[in-house]
Specification:
This protein has helices spanning 3-28, 36-54, 71-97, 104-121, 125-143, 150-181, 186-192, 200-217, 226-232, 235-260, 265-287, 293-312, 321-349, 365-368, 370-384, 390-404, 408-434, 445-463, 466-473; strands spanning 60-62, 67-69. By secondary structure, it is an all-alpha fold. β1 and β2 (67-69) form a beta hairpin. The longest helix is centred in the middle third of the chain and has 32 residues, at 150-181. It is globular. The model has no long low-confidence stretch (mean pLDDT 91).
């Protein structure tokens, strides 16, 4: 390895070593000092955040072109590391409440973030697969972390079985692409297949890879695991997954298809159009029927994957792909902040016996806990796309990128889906402020701080979106 190789892998390598240290330190800590473990894990994530920011001006390719560190990777790494910090904060009091304080939770979070960062930097299909497994395997364990809870056990088993099945599709697709091109490097594949003629095996391989990523981003019809896993997994894990896993899936999707398969866009565009429309409609329509907040937010997450796919449909159009990627990165950050605000409130109301997650449990929250109610209201308005929130700008930029690509029909489907979503999002606000009740609320310091900061960011960035736009403008993938 030379200096370039070390620079390209340094963000991931540092966090891997820190995760191993978290395991070792927790092993020797007396029980009364177990609170040090999450603080130590958070310190590692914070240091790696600083390391990524210091490398933001670099654009290097290491390990014979297998790994790339550029603005795109750095921006997504910041989302992953920030999600890890929030995942730790949300779990700190939750694990105590559930009598599940075990230090390996924080090490598993760190290892999963390592896989996500590797996904954002991968420039080779083999590395994409390794990154997918590294981010997924810790999450299979985390989904079943509440070992005495049958729903948690069910969530882990379903996630593992369907995740392994989807990984098989991805690996089979990689094998087909290698068979058609003799390459797994993304840039080499694009250079070889640069024209209108390409083997049918390559198109089939790209389709299988799309299925594998479709599972990770929760696109319909590959979303059957989402509601059960989101409901059964520990709620901090669910919040972490809803943001970080979706961002990692779209990071891989953008890397692979924009860099390696732009020549296949004419054949894949109708398929992506259908996936985006179906995902938006299924997610929003089924969410209308939910009375459990975790399941409602699960179907909401599916719908937002559809909005992101709407921007991705233009991946092969060189004239608009830059603005489409910028819009998707903006949306991922805004969606992440909004989701964490919502999940923090869900955790605050959830009880040890599993109660407190029904929609009716939010009655009277506006009077009993005004700050938490305002946090949830800001999240619901942002999910809907109401002005003065960051969610409004995210949808605006995605719709604009789809219009620039000529997909007017898809934009109309997206607008209709957004109108449908307004009903079940605003219904939560109505429950909090227009109904009487006495909801039981946890008073956890880190949880309330996370909720407040996320809500302020959702509203504050809605007034000054150009701050995010400046960041994503430097993060757009530089096409070879």
């Amino acid at each position: 390895m030379d200096l370039i190789d070390l620079l390209s892998i340094s963000p991931v390598g540092f966090l891997v070593l820190w995760a191993l240290l978290v395991l070792l330190i927790d092993l020797w800590l007396p029980r009364r000092f177990k609170g040090v473990t999450p603080l130590f894990a958070s310190l590692g994530l914070a240091i790696d955040l600083g390391l990524n920011i210091s490398l933001s001006a670099l654009q290097v390719s290491g390990f014979s072109g297998m790994m790339r560190l550029d603005g795109f990777a750095v921006f997504l790494n910041l989302i992953f590391l920030g999600s890890g910090l929030v995942g730790v904060a949300l779990a700190y009091d939750y694990l105590k409440r559930m009598n599940a304080v075990r230090g390996e939770y924080y090490a598993l979070i760190l290892f999963s973030v390592c896989g996500m960062m590797l996904m954002a930097q991968a420039d080779d299909l083999i590395l994409v697969f390794l990154a997918l497994e590294l981010l997924s395997i810790p999450l299979y364990v985390l989904a079943g972390f509440l070992r005495g809870n049958l729903l948690s056990q069910e969530a882990a088993l379903k996630y593992f079985l369907l995740g392994a099945f989807a990984s098989g599709f991805l690996l089979y697709g990689i094998a087909m692409v290698y068979g058609a091109t003799s390459y797994t490097n993304l840039t080499s594949i694009a250079q070889l297949v640069n024209g209108a003629h390409y083997p049918g095996l390559l198109l089939l391989g790209a389709g299988f890879i799309l299925v594998g990523f479709g599972f990770k981003v929760a696109a319909s019809p590959f979303n059957l695991w989402v509601p059960d896993v989101y409901q059964g997994a520990p709620t901090p894990v669910t919040g972490f997954m809803s943001v970080a896993v979706k961002a990692a899936g779209f990071a891989g999707l953008m890397r692979v298809f924009i860099l390696a398969f732009p020549s296949l866009s004419s054949d894949l565009t109708p398929l992506l159009w259908g996936l985006a429309a179906l995902t938006m409609l299924v997610g929003n329509l089924v969410a209308l029927l939910q009375t459990n907040m975790k399941r409602m937010l699960a179907y909401s997450s599916i719908a937002h994957a559809g909005y992101l796919l709407m921007g991705f449909v233009s991946f092969g159009n060189g004239a608009v792909v830059g603005s489409a990627v910028s819009a998707m990165l903006f949306y991922l950050l805004g969606y992440g902040l909004t989701s964490f605000a919502a999940w923090a409130v869900v955790i605050a109301l959830e009880q040890v016996d599993g109660k407190g997650v029904s929609l009716s449990d939010y009655k009277g929250l506006g009077k009993r806990q005004p700050l938490l109610a305002l946090t949830m209201a800001a999240a619901m308005l942002s999910f809907t796309g109401i002005p003065i929130t960051v969610g409004f700008w995210g949808k605006l930029f995605l719709f604009r990128s789809a219009l620039e690509g000529g997909f007017i029909g898809l934009v109309l489907v997206g607008l209709a889906a957004a109108v449908v979503s307004a009903y079940y999002y605003l219904r939560v606000i109505a429950m909090m402020y227009m109904h009487t009740g006495e909801p039981e609320v946890r008073r956890d310091g880190w949880l309330n701080l996370t909720a407040l900061v996320s809500a302020l960011a959702v509203v504050g960035l809605g007034f000054i979106p150009y701050i995010i736009l400046q960041a994503v403008s430097t993060a757009v993938i530089q096409l070879p």
